Amino acid sequence: MNVRSLPGWKTRFHTLCLMLLVAVAAGTAAVPATAQEGTGAPVTEAVPAGPVAAPADATAEAAADAVAGEEAAAGEEAALDSGDTAWMLTSTLLVLLMIVPGLALFYGGLVRSKNVLSVLSQVLVVASLVIVLWSFYGYSAVFTEGNAFFGSFAEKSFLKGIGVETLSGSIPELLFVAFQSTFAAITTALIVGAFAERIKFKAVLLFSVLWFTFSYVPMAHIVWGGGYLAELGAIDFAGGTVVHINAGVAGLVGAYFVGKRLGYGQVALKPHNVPFTFIGAALLWVGWFGFNAGSAVAADGTAALAFINTILATSAAVVGWTAVEALTKGKPSALGAASGAVAGLVGITPACGTVGPLGAIVVGLAAGVVCVWGVTGLKRLLNVDDTADVFGVHGIGGIVGAILTGVFTAPSLGGTGEADFSIASQVWIQVVSVGFTILWCAVVTAVALLLTRVVFGLRVSEDAEREGLDIASHGESAYEL
Predict the structure, then answer these.
(1) Which residues of 446-476 are buried (b: 16+ CB within 10 A; e: fewer)?
(2) Helices then strands (H, E): number in the chain?
């Protein structure tokens, strides 16, 4: 059937996608399984239980036995596990693979040839800058006790008090710091794809510092560090709100502030190298196993559940995106399949450790289908030039995944929720967490961009944009013809 010959199909498709997204958001407990449950405020070296006062009629020997038993239990709980440590070393490396070369190649292929080096540079330098800031104050402000929005910026600043013997659960705390640094790095680097090809390099760096400090750090504490949403009972196993909605909304706001590329809507601004993007998506999928399964912070059954869910949801999303393209355009594209893979990975991120395998397939399929609309119909409705569709894939996919987490975590649907799990209650909590993330991020991003505009300005000159940022900003060219 030639769908293109059916009058009004685009309007009906856009309407259907919008209705689906609204229905998901309004869907009908609270399971306090916050994202990376095992990564809550780290436990440092075990403190042996203090002496237990024996009852008046207990013998001294019985009291000594009780104390020894408690000390042994505390020591066992804090013992380093070599299997967990090996897995977390691997997971950290896998997440780093997602950034460079994964994300860099994915974005690099989507821009024009005259801007590819600028995007590669922005991804690498922004990620590196954030990792350094994470060790200075980010880790401390997220994973120490504080208030509902921030931990202490000073308690573990510059990794103070963390040594080679210090443990976070069953792994070295230094390893936990490294693992979490890659999350902060990729989240901030994701944003640059939204305003690629026209923003000043120094503006990107200043904005990244401000946004990391006042959007990523508090959101990570709010969800994973025992803050407001953690107390509320929001489920975000590996970063649906903290990473994807956060970065997606920032990209949308950033694209509005920086403005459209010259010629946008008038001439075709095509990706210069789809194979780059395809390879980048493949590397992202491989690295995402560290992202999702690594968030269990252990080599255990939860990691295995997150692992298989990452396979299934991504595959379902590829099938969903490809099917929609085949029906609506007549021809499925390689770029669409690669984008579908990323959409599925985004959608399953908050749910991977709490939903069952069949639930993961539904989440992935929904994310793939809805994100097609996110980068087509919704993008036109918003009238925004989001170069790499950061909001359409990460923002929309994150919203779909976060809300459906509240549905498929239910044990009746194969999830790991408690026996008294309430879908209606949890979905409402998930909706609140999504709304809170959107509002917080939008406000912080707008303020950060305004400050950056005052200090450096945001956009390169028209001449520089026409010449290309590779030469104008970096003095080099990717392709010498």
Answers:
(1) eebbeebbeeeebbbeeeebeebbbbbbbee
(2) 21, 2
Contacting residues for 230 by C-beta, under 8 A, at least 6 apart: 32, 34, 40, 222, 223, 224
Which residues are CB-neighbours of 439 under 8 A, at least 6 positions away? none
Structure tokens given for 306: 């997150």
Distances (CA, A) of 433 to 147, 222, 234, 248, 438: 17, 10, 7, 15, 9
One DSSP character per residue, 244-289 reads IIHHHHHHHHHHHHH-PPTTBTTB----S-HHHHHHHHHHHHHHHH
Predicted model pTM: 0.87
Q: What is the DSSP string of 309-370?
A: HHHHHHHHHHHHHHHHHHHHHSS--HHHHHHHHHHHHHHHTTTTTTS-HHHHHHHHHHHHHH
Reported as a single tens digit per residue, the pLDDT across 260-282 is 999 999 999 999 999 999 999 99
Euclidean distance between CA atoms 367 and 316, whole angstroms: 9
How far apart, in whole angstroms, are the C-alpha atoms of residue 153 and residue 147? 12
Say if CB 222 and CB 229 are below 8 A apart: yes
Residues in contact with 321: Cβ distance below 8 Å, sequence separation at least 6, in sequence order: 336, 337, 339, 340, 343, 368, 369, 371, 372
How confident is the model at residue 71, as a pLDDT? 47
pLDDT at 52 (0 to 100): 35
CA distance 224 to 274: 36
d(CA 362, CA 415): 13
- Report residue 34 as tokens: 């916050």
366-381 in b/e form (b: 16+ CB < 10 A) is bbbbbbbbbbbbbbee
Nearest to 194, CA basis, from 343, 391, 396? 391
User: b/e per residue, 219-238, with b = 16+ CB within 10 A?
Assistant: bbbbbbbbbbbbebbbbbbb
Q: Tokens for 247?
A: 């970065």
Q: How confident is the model at residue 77 (pLDDT cuts 50, 70, 90)?
A: low
Residue from 323, 312, 375 nearest 348 by CA: 312
